[in-house]
Each structure stands twice: as C-alpha cells, then as structure tokens.
C-alpha cells in the first residue's frame, strides 16, 4: 500500500505527463481541484486536448453559463472559456491526451 496527499500534487493534478505524478501517462491527465468562492481562471483554450470537467460540489460560471453540482462540461480543442467559482467548488478534471504546453491564454 502507498498513501499520497493531494496537496503534494501541483494544482490538484495527480496523473499525467508531469511531475509530481502518481501515474505518468501521455494519454490522459486527472485532477481534483478545489476553488474558494470568487476564484477565477483566465480565458484559455487547448489546441490538442479535450477536457471533461465534473462539478462535484459548488457552482461555477463557464462559457457565460452557470453550472452546478453533477454537471459535466466537455471542452473540445479550440473552445475557449474562463472559469469563476460562484461558491466554494470542487471539480474533477480529465484531459486527454496529456499534452505539455497546450494551454493558450485569450486576451
């Protein structure tokens, strides 16, 4: 048995093609991300990866829409969005493939 702490991972990302990781893979990335109310990520897109975001608790604004607990948002390559936590929020995020330097900020 091995035991790890999510807090020891970078930004909640714990599997994928980066360090530290529990399982190195170029095929996918997985994260559990916690956002306090008011947290914001700037508008960005990926050229290669598709991203699945599951809202496990809380409420967020993405794509100028409100999403709640149990919503799953699929973001295809080239689709740009920002992210604002309207409440304390936890998400599970899966990206495929795991692609280094595939985050492009939008002005």
Automatic annotation (TrEMBL):
CDD domains in alphabetical order: cupin_RmlC-like
Gene3D superfamilies per the UniProt record, alphabetical: Jelly Rolls
Superkingdom of the organism of origin: Bacteria
SUPFAM superfamilies (UniProt xref): RmlC-like cupins (SSF51182)
InterPro entries, alphabetized: RmlC-like_jellyroll (IPR014710), RmlC_Cupin_sf (IPR011051)
Protein name: Cupin domain-containing protein
